[in-house]
Design a protein that fits this description.
Blueprint: H1 2-19, H2 21-55, H3 59-63, H4 67-72, H5 78-90, H6 94-104, H7 110-117, H8 125-136, H9 142-150, H10 153-163, H11 183-212, H12 219-229, H13 231-241, H14 244-257, H15 259-269, H16 277-302
Helix pairs in contact: 2-11, 5-6, 6-7, 8-13, 9-14, 9-16, 11-12, 11-15, 12-13, 13-14, 14-16
């Protein structure tokens, strides 16, 4: 089924590209512009700096301020703590990239890597406070968006610990720095990952352009579909069609889920074949639903005090 479906899908995409070149050109241009103006300048410096921290042995120094929380609540090793922190601060797909590399290098165990994949890949605070808050408008506080997106990490972590058998703080694995890549090699690796991300953003931006031009779909349905496909385009579409708490909850779901584009980006940076992308997808759907629910709960709690 899979082998017959994928070639058929590829032929259909080629047919659409040939029959609608203007839409393909517009979508590709918008995707590459988004990558060049937003994703590249925000994510690439974090990738290079992250590689430098790892190569210089600065993991414990970075995670020291939150080490008790990460050890006692999240039950993470020092290296695992760094994966979670980098994923929370740097945005998609930095958490998954670091998780995959650490499993491959045997800095963390496979069980800890699977656990981390469920909680370490998120939109960055800069994305939420900048792009997402701007789309939400002044009526929705930025703090409410941050809380709704990040608070579900705690219950998801507790559930994931049970699923992957994390009963106590993960042990630090012995690691040799003999084969540590040089800074130039780390930088080239970052460039390679960024090119992959740019390719996926371009392809999914073309798909989003086709979806936006489908007359059979109502505007609200188009916006929700776009939010599932690619978060930046989807968030913009949602802000044009929805208002109030429904808009806020929808934005939180889209950002926490990360879109299918984010799913493919994550799959491209996972170096270990033992990290199941299907499990990751299920955790992200759960995260999106919890984010929307928490937003509605917190927004309704705010109402009497207005």
């Amino acid at each position: 089924m899979k082998k017959s479906f994928i070639p058929f899908l590829a032929v259909m995409v080629l047919f659409l590209l040939l029959t609608h070149p203007s839409l393909s050109f517009k979508g590709a241009g918008q995707g590459l512009l988004l990558w060049y103006q937003t994703v590249l300048p925000t994510l690439l410096p974090f990738m290079i700096c992250s590689n430098l921290i790892v190569s210089l042995g600065g993991i414990r120094l970075l995670t020291a301020p939150v080490r008790p929380l990460l050890k006692n609540v999240f039950r993470l090793s020092d290296a695992g703590s760094y994966v979670l922190v980098s994923g929370l601060l740097c945005g998609y797909p930095m958490g998954a990239k670091t998780c995959g590399e650490f499993v491959e290098e045997k800095r963390i165990s496979l069980s800890e890597g699977r656990y981390l994949l469920s909680v370490s890949n998120h939109p960055s605070p800069m994305f939420i406070l900048g792009y997402m808050a701007s789309a939400a408008g002044a009526s929705i506080p930025s703090a409410l968006l941050l809380a709704a997106v990040y608070l579900p990490v705690i219950p998801i972590a507790l559930a994931s610990q049970r699923v992957y058998g994390i009963g106590e703080a993960c042990a630090c694995l012995p690691y040799s720095c003999k084969n540590q890549p040089s800074f130039d090699q780390s930088m080239m690796n970052s460039f390679e990952v960024m090119i992959k991300i740019g390719g996926y953003i371009m392809l999914f931006s073309i798909l989003a352009e086709f979806i936006g031009q489908m007359p059979c779909l109502p505007a609200a349905v188009q916006a929700y579909v776009l939010g599932i496909v690619e978060i930046t385009t989807g968030i913009r579409a949602l802000s044009y069609t929805l208002t109030g708490n429904i808009l806020g909850a929808s934005l939180c779901f889209a950002a926490a889920f990360g879109g299918l584009c984010g799913l493919f980006q994550t799959r491209s940076v996972l170096k270990s074949p033992d990290l199941p992308i299907f499990h990751y997808l299920l955790w992200k759907i759960l995260h999106g639903c919890l984010s929307a629910a928490i937003f509605m709960l917190l927004a309704n709690i705010r109402l009497p005090g207005r």
